[in-house]
Design brief:
With 206 residues, the chain is an alpha/beta fold. It is built from 8 helices and 7 strands; from the N terminus they run E-E-H-H-H-H-E-H-E-H-E-H-E-H-E.
C-alpha cells in the first residue's frame, strides 16, 4: 500500500495521553476486515451485498453489534455470535498479511522514544487486536489496550476512550484520539478529547 498521498495533521502541542484506534489508523487492515465480513456474511446466508460503503459506515462498532445493526437495517436474521466467530476466524487466518500505516506508526515510535503515555482503543476483539499489533511490530508499545471485550457500549459511545484515559491515569480532556472512522471521532468528541482523523486508504475490490 502506498502512503505517499496520505496527509495527516499530527498535533503540534503536547498531550498527557495519546489514544489510537487500531484498524485503519495504525494498521492497514481494513480491506482484510472487509473481506472477512463478506466471507462470513455470505457463508451464513446474507441476502444483500456488504459493500465497502456499508462496512465503512459501521467501522468502530463491535462485531456482534455490527451483525445486530445489519439485521435491523437489511432485514436479515443472522446469528451475531456465529457470524462473528466466522469473521474472526477468517481474519485470524490472514492477519499476517496486515502491514503498518507507516506515517502513523512512525509517529507512535517517536512518541514512544519521548516517553509519552499511549493507548489503543479498538472496537475489535482483544485476541485479534493483539495479533494485529504483533503483525505491525507494535506489541508492547502501548500502556493500555482497550478492546470490545473491555466495554459494554460500542463507538460512538465514549466509553472506550474514557477507559483508555483512566488506564493511562490521565485527564480525558488532556488526551488526543487518532481515528479513521466517523463513529470513532464522534466518540472522541463525546469524551471531550481532541482528535485527528486518519484518511481512508480506500479498498481493493474483494
Amino acid at each position: 500500500m502506498s502512503f505517499e498521498n496520505l496527509k495527516i495533521d499530527f498535533p503540534t502541542k503536547d498531550y498527557d495521553g495519546y489514544i489510537f484506534d487500531c484498524d485503519g489508523t495504525i494498521a492497514d487492515s481494513m480491506t482484510l476486515h472487509h473481506k472477512a465480513w463478506r466471507y462470513a456474511l455470505q457463508t451464513h446466508g446474507a441476502t444483500f451485498d456488504y459493500t465497502w460503503e456499508i462496512f465503512n459506515s459501521l467501522a468502530g462498532v463491535g462485531h456482534e453489534d455490527t451483525v445486530r445493526k445489519i439485521n435491523v437495517a437489511y432485514n436479515q436474521h443472522l446469528d451475531p455470535v456465529a457470524v462473528t466467530k466466522c469473521k474472526e476466524d477468517w481474519y485470524a487466518q490472514h492477519v499476517d498479511e496486515v502491514g503498518p500505516i507507516i506515517p502513523v506508526t512512525d509517529y507512535v515510535r517517536s512518541l514512544l522514544e519521548d516517553g509519552a503515555k499511549m493507548a489503543v482503543a479498538s472496537g475489535g476483539p482483544r485476541v485479534l487486536v493483539m495479533r494485529t499489533l504483533k503483525a505491525i511490530r507494535l506489541e508492547g508499545a502501548f500502556m493500555a489496550v482497550v478492546t470490545q471485550d473491555d466495554i459494554s457500549r460500542s463507538k460512538p459511545d465514549p466509553e472506550i476512550f474514557l477507559k483508555a484515559a483512566y488506564l493511562m491515569g490521565v485527564d480525558p480532556h488532556k488526551c488526543v484520539v487518532f481515528e479513521d472512522s466517523l463513529l470513532g471521532i464522534a466518540g472522541a468528541k463525546s469524551a471531550g478529547m481532541d482528535w485527528v482523523q486518519i484518511p481512508s486508504l480506500g479498498v481493493v475490490k474483494a
